[in-house]
Here is the input.
Amino acid sequence: MELTNYAITRGFNWKYLKNDNVRLTVRCYVDVCPWRLHASVVHEDPEFAIKTLNNIHSCGCDIMSDGHPRTSKKWVANAMKGKLVDKPTYRASEMMRDIRRDYGISIPYHQAWWGKEVVVSSLYGDFRTSYHMLNWYSERALQSNSGSVLSLEVDPETQHFKHFFICFQASAYGFEVASALNGNNELFTVAYSIADSETYDNWVWFLQNLKKALLSDRRIAFLSDRGKGLKEAIPDIFPNDHHGYYFQHIMQNFNDQCAGKYAAPFKKLLRKILQCIAYVVTEQEYQDAMLAMEINSADAKEWVLRNDVDHWSHVRFPFGELYSSLAESFNNWIHDARSLPILQMVDKIRVQMMEMTAKRKIDAALWDTPYCPKVQKIIEKNLQERRSLPICHSDGIKFEVIESIKTYAVDLHLQTCSYGHWQLVKIPCKHACAAIGSNKEAVSQYVSAFYSTEVYMAAYERNIQPIPTFDMPDPPQPSNILIKPPTTKRLPGRLRKRRIHSRGEVDHAYICSRCKQIGHNRRT
Here is the structure.
C-alpha cells in the first residue's frame, strides 16, 4: 500500500517483476524508464525493507492527470479511513473532493462510494452484523440512563428485527414542561423508533411505548401526515387526545380533487378560500369562509366536510400549528445518521440529542430576557405596534381597541381578544398589549409561562448520559441470540437515501423578492 501511495503521489505506474512472500521487485511501467525498486523481508519480520532503489524517472512521471490505474476501493478506504473515523457521516462526494486535493487525481463516484463501504464495514461491521449488538446496546443504555424506556422487539420464531423504541429519561422529563416544540419554537425530541415498515401495527407499538414512557397523563395534541396506519392508530391508543393534520397535505389533496374540473383562476380562488378555512381564528371568519366556498362550489364545500375539517382548521384545532416543519426538521437533522448501520445510527442520533441538550442549556444560561429570544421579539414587536392603537374602556378588565376602521374586544380576565391570536398562541397580540398597557399592567403577566426562559431551562435540566462502548464484545457471545435484519425486499440498484417527500412538500421554498411571500418568485 505504501508503494501505491508513493506512485499515486508521484504520478507514475509500475510493473511487477517479482512478487511473493519474501521479495518484491518492480520497475516503471514505461519500458525505457530506469526507475526500479527491490525489497525483501527483514529476517522473519512481516515488514519489507528496500534493498535497491533507482529513483530516477526518464518518463517524466506524466501519468494521466484525471485518474490513476492503481486506485481501487481498497486504496480509497485506506486513504480516507482516518477521516471516516473522525466523521462517520463523511460522504462519498467529500471523499472525491479530498482525494483530488490531497493526491491530485480524480476518482469516479462509485469508487469513492465502495471505498466508504469498505471502511464502514471494517469499523462497524456490515449492516447485517450491526443488528447483532442491539440487545447489548439496549442494556448498556439503560445502565447509563436509568429510567429510560428502550424496547426492542424481534420475531420470536425467526429472530428477524421488527422495531426498536428509544425514549431517554431526560427527554421524557423535559416533555413535562415542553412539547415537541419548545418555548423558543425549536424542535424538542421526545422519542424515536426504528421499524421494518410503516404499518398500523408498528404505529400502535410505537404509540404504546410512547404512552408508557411519558411521565404524566396530560392531554397531547398530535400533528401528522396521516401516514399509513397512523390516522387509525392515534385514536386507538390516545382516544382522549387531539390529532391534527398537516394542512399542506390537505391542500395537495384538494388540488388533485380540482384537477381538470376548474379553470386555473377559479381553482386559485378556491385554494385561497380553503386557506382561509384553515387559518382564520374566529368562528365568524370560519363560517364566512365556509359560506364563500359553498357559494363558489358546493362540491368543494362537500369535499371540505368529508375530509375532516375539524382536524386541520385553527378554529376547530386551536393549537397554533398546522405545519409539518417539525417533522421535516427532524428528518433533515438525522439525514446523515440514516446512512450508518443500525447500531451506529441509533447511537449517532443519541449523541446528537445529547449535544443539542447540552448546547441549549448553555445558551439559555446566557439569556438576559424573561422569555425565550424568539418570543421576546414577538412581544417587543406587539408592544411597539400597540402605541398607535386608540383604546376605549368598558370597565377595568374589558376594552375596545380600534385599528383603522375595525374594533376588537379585549377581556383581560378571560385573556381573550376577538382578533383570535392571543387565544391561539398564548402571547398577547398588539390589541391585548394596548389594553394591558392602558390598565397599567405588565404584559409579562399575560404571557404563557411555557415561553419563559425559566421553563425552557427546566426542559433541559436533565442530561442524556454518555453510553461507553469500549468493552462491547466483538463478536457477540455465542450464548446470545443473534438478531437478524428485517425481512424487507431490497429493490434493484443502489439504495435510496433521500427521504421520500410527503404530499405537497417541495424541495425548495421559493420566496418572492418583491412581496417576500413564499410559493412564487418575482416573475410569477
